[in-house]
Design brief:
The chain is built from seven helices and seven strands, in the order E-H-E-H-H-E-H-E-E-E-H-H-E-H. By secondary structure, the protein is of the alpha/beta class. It has one domain: Flavodoxin domain (Rossmann fold), CATH 3.40.50. Strand 4 and strand 5 form a beta hairpin. It is globular, with a radius of gyration of 17 Å. The two termini are about 15 Å apart.
Amino acid sequence: MVARKIIAIVGSYRPGGITDQLVETTLSAARACGAETETVWLIDLAMRHCGNCRACMQQPGDGRGRCVIEDDVPGLLARIDRADGVVLASPVNIGNVTAVTRQFMERCAGAAYWPWGQAAPSLRAGKARRPAVLISSSAAPAWMARLFMGAAGALRQWAAMLGVRPVGVVWQGRVSEEQMTLSPSVRTRALALGRQLAGSL
């Protein structure tokens, strides 16, 4: 049996922090089920910002339009496309995902076809089948952050742009300088979703 390949894309600035712990807990469960995992920190990429030229959105076809910028992003997108499952993670920063996460999201614009003169973009991908787990953390209680801040919607949009299907969300709320460990219930959920990514549920 071929091992499933799971890739995690992390938009946190803090190795060892809550978001990192959530990602590693999820991946550890997937590895325990035989999956191969990889973690990519966006802060480590050579990544230029999107110039909003929309060249990637002019190219017809079902595949993602090619960006004119040559850096680490196209290679990472290709690795994501080859993965069997994806983890997308960003803590809440000023009410939304981090700036580096948004920077990468903007570079995913080629997922849509939007020729000049067309009123609105359309996603190229068909029905998303590959599973994804969305991960975040916030100083606010999790229910409040998910309802009233933009991060939850941004993570779902990110998943849609990558052509993956969220199977669950892991969110640790009430994060403080003193509280830097996962709550038992959140840890349990992360483990369960990691097993689901590995195809064991």
